[in-house]
Amino acid sequence: MRISLLSWLSLIPLCSLFLSFLVFAVSGQCLGKQQSLLLDLKNSLKFNSTLSTKLVYWNESTDCCSWEGVTCSEGRIICLNLDSESIYGGLDNSSSLFRLQYLQNLRLASNNFNHSQIPPEFGNLTNLSYLNLSNSGFSGPVPTQISRLTRLVTLDLSTLLSISSLRLESLNFATLVQNLSHLTELYLDGVFISVLGIEWWPLHSSLQKLRSLSVIHLNNNHFYATIPEFFANFTNLSSLKLSSSRSIKTLPRKILQIPTLQLLDLSKNELNGSLPEFHPNGALQSPLLTYLVHLDMSFNNFSGPVPSFIMAKNLTEINISNNNLTDTLDLSSNNLEGPIPMTIFELRGLQNLLLSSNNFSGSWQLNAFQQLRNLSNLGLSHNSLLIEYNGANSLSFPKIESLGLASTKLKTVPDFLRNQSNLVILDLSDNQIHGEIPN
Predict the structure, then answer these.
(1) pLDDT value at residue 169
(2) Distance of CA 82 to CAs 42, 63, 74, 331, Å?
(3) Strand 140-141 relative to strand 239-241: parallel, antiparallel, unpaired?
(4) pTM higher than 0.70, yes or no?
(5) pLDDT digits over 25-53, tens only?
(6) Domain that holds residue 43
(7) How many separate domains does the chain show?
């Protein structure tokens, strides 16, 4: 028996966050009352019709389930996407928006509600699982009525400081999270979280109830204590951003042992001390290295050597610039194996790169290391590497003082060496060199 197209479409997950631009009627025509609520909403909103791509085309002569930004199920509106619709002015408390009782997904991001407060009537939309009000120009306190949305999975109130000044008062925060047990993604970047005395973290007891959180973004806030260790108990945490909090000075080691983390951004704080040493393939291997792809610890006060965990094979983006590190990465004699991770080439200020006496493998053009223009000491000896040189006369390590290429299957003496005036130590032993030695 053939299954109709509409039957297949009814199986599609509701309001995919990643395909929010895809708009269609899942099944059935828009119920009359639902359509009238949307038309009332359109008439109550102020928006720039020349920039609008959705509202401007809503018309009573067509079925509302076919309108841009609207998704239906059995004629009921379950998803409303009005992101970037050039809406301006306030949102009235009596708006018909708050009578769309079947809504599960609501997006009003990147509009300009002109510093008006978030209406408490959002708390009436109790079927919402996704709410995005980011960068929409709302101001003032976040209403406690948001805590009525007990089905919320994602809450995004993030904002650019230059646009609005949302604030979340301490008692409201506790009320907000006490009922949101299904929340997995929390975005509060730029939301001013008011404090009790001088510390926000007395709210630990409320935030730690949200054990299902996988995304915590709290950039551009002002916290006056350490990063809470209880984040390490969030077994699904994949993305943690605490950038530009400025007053955070201590990094608990447990945070760097969260096995599910893929993104960690602690940049622009006052974190100090040395970065932890976790050998990527050794006894001190950190669970952090399992999934971490993006790491940003720039603009802090870390000191000591460049940490060995930057060699994690899966780590593709790393920024540890603007600290007080010694610009030395010494991983010699550690039984490390596999290819040399590309992340080392992001460390443009590196002066000492010592990888000798390991089991690193792969073929490398010597030219590749020229990206590290500040190198004074490069040690690649006694690995399983094949180092090749293509005879580029322009190759230069302007500051190189020591170059170790022993046992790298090198076949020719690089002719660029004659121009390295600072070179003091050169080890080319146990190779396959033949031909003339350059003068």
Answers:
(1) 74
(2) 11, 18, 21, 52
(3) unpaired
(4) yes
(5) 344 588 889 999 999 999 999 999 999 99
(6) 12-104
(7) 2
Q: How far apart are CA 419 and CA 79, in angstroms?
A: 67
Last residue of a domain, one of 63, 79, 104: 104
* Chain position carrying tokens 């530009």: 244
Q: Whole-angstrom Cα distance, residue 305 to residue 271?
A: 15
The helix/strand/coil state of 19 is helix
Q: Looking at the domain assignment, is residue 24 inside a domain?
A: yes
Give kind and range of the element (H or E) at residue 325: strand 324-325
Q: Which residue has the tokens 């920039």?
A: 51
Rounded distance, CA 393 to CA 124, Å?
72
Average pLDDT over residues 188-212: 70
The least confident of 35-44, 82-91, 418-427 is 418-427
Which structure tokens are listed for 250?
């201590």
Q: What stretch of H or E contains 70? A: strand 70-73
List C-alpha distances in Å: 11 to 28, 30, 170, 191: 14, 18, 42, 37
Q: What is the CATH number of the domain that holds 349?
A: 3.80.10.10
CA distance 208 to 205: 6
Q: Which of 214, 294, 307 is nearest to 260 (CA)?
A: 214
End position of a domain, from candidates 79, 104, 129: 104
Q: What SS3 class is residue 261? A: coil
